[in-house]
């Protein structure tokens, strides 16, 4: 029996999060066992869908750290995809500010050497802040594949609520490639 690969799919509260069910199905079709983690705001946005998303993945949807001594309800990750990753998430993660469960697990995944892909999702005004480029470079230097700019996510103008297209398929392709390279290494 072939062991399923486990993907931790982490999402921030940005409009592409509403597409997460189809992303989970796409990842499952690629052979991933998906565990869904959300920032607290993303969890609130998806609250009416959380039970259905848990049924779809076969795992509880998490947005909080477990208590010490509680069993882990997810299998260990083989890879992490953090998308959409908001301005706040990217900066918190790069700076090691791990108040949010998904940011903490993603930060720890760097230290564990897991394959990690992220797709930022922030408008053009946010990304002009000087910390954002520093944060993207920090994550890339730590080994995270950051799909941002040409060939990845290109920011939309401020005030546009929904990205013209979010590169979900590209993100899953990058996870597959990163995990395959990690397994070969």
Task: Chart the SSEs and their pairings.
Layout: E1 5-11, H1 20-29, E2 32-38, H2 40-45, H3 50-57, E3 79-85, H4 87-95, H5 101-112, E4 116-120, H6 130-141, E5 145-146, H7 168-184
Parallel strand pairs: 1-2, 1-3, 3-4, 4-5
Provide structural commentary.
This protein has a single domain (5-67, 74-184), classed as Flavin prenyltransferase-like (Rossmann fold, 3-Layer(aba) Sandwich). 40% of the residues lie in helices and 15% in strands. The radius of gyration is 15 Å and the shape is globular. It has 185 residues and is α/β, with parallel strands linked by helices. The model has no long low-confidence stretch (mean pLDDT 93). Strand 1, helix 1 and strand 2 (32-38) form a beta-alpha-beta unit. The protein has a five-stranded parallel β-sheet with strand order 2-1-3-4-5, with helices on both faces. It has helices spanning 20-29, 40-45, 50-57, 87-95, 101-112, 130-141, 168-184; strands spanning 5-11, 32-38, 79-85, 116-120, 145-146.
